[in-house]
Amino acid sequence: MNKTISPLWGIVCALVFGAVIYGFTAPSREKPWTPPETAHDATYEFLQDVQRETGITFTFMIDKEFPWIVVVDREVKNMMITGKQWMAPEMTQENWTAISDYFMQNGFVLDLPNVGANPNQWTQEAYKKNNVVCTVVHMAHTQGNLILELPSGMTISCGINLLEEIPEVTTEESITNLIASALEIPRSQITEVVMEKTSWDLEGMHIVRGVYTKGEEPYPRMFIAKKTTQWEIVMSGDEGSVACDDLRLLIGSDDIPEDLLTSCFQE
Fold this sequence. Notes:
2 domains, membrane, alpha+beta, transmembrane helix, transmembrane, 5 helices
């Protein structure tokens, strides 16, 4: 007896065979790109302050080497600066003004040997302050030799010029930068930092306490900072706002001096 094969089975087999072939030949889906992690060093904190101060929304930060020209004993040298880079896909004229104002108001000067066109023929500004150097590249939309009046992107790259002597940074300057970073506000809003004369050396740590003034607030707030290899803000805010047990954990020691315990409250 001959059995007839239903046409439905033929369709099912064709679909299964097609699915198997597609599984082997279909292009693999690539995972979306995510920027790599970057160390939270002094350059990172500086660029974060640029973003807070100017209000510009940057996309992501990456580790970046960028070219820099130095003049040493009348000899021009080309070098690569190891640092970090922010990128903003679209910039308005107000954004460009804010970037320029930020550098000039924070003690930077234009570095003329590095101002002009960069290797990609984009307009570049360059700033330096002591051994900190930055380039701001204007990535304009072009058509032939014409610059189109369209929103354009920007990169800002900063790093340390190791050929320059590193100036001594005072404790007040270091703590001012750290407080601004901890509060996520522009550095310019920390108007004054005053440390107490009393400080403590405890289990390899140096601890200081003091006050800072933020913006136009009429009263100062307290901070405690510690240093093992570098300064770190332990707490900032109103005096007595932290429990003493929490303060011990933040400092990393149970043996907090009695006069330092006045900064916290006992539970």
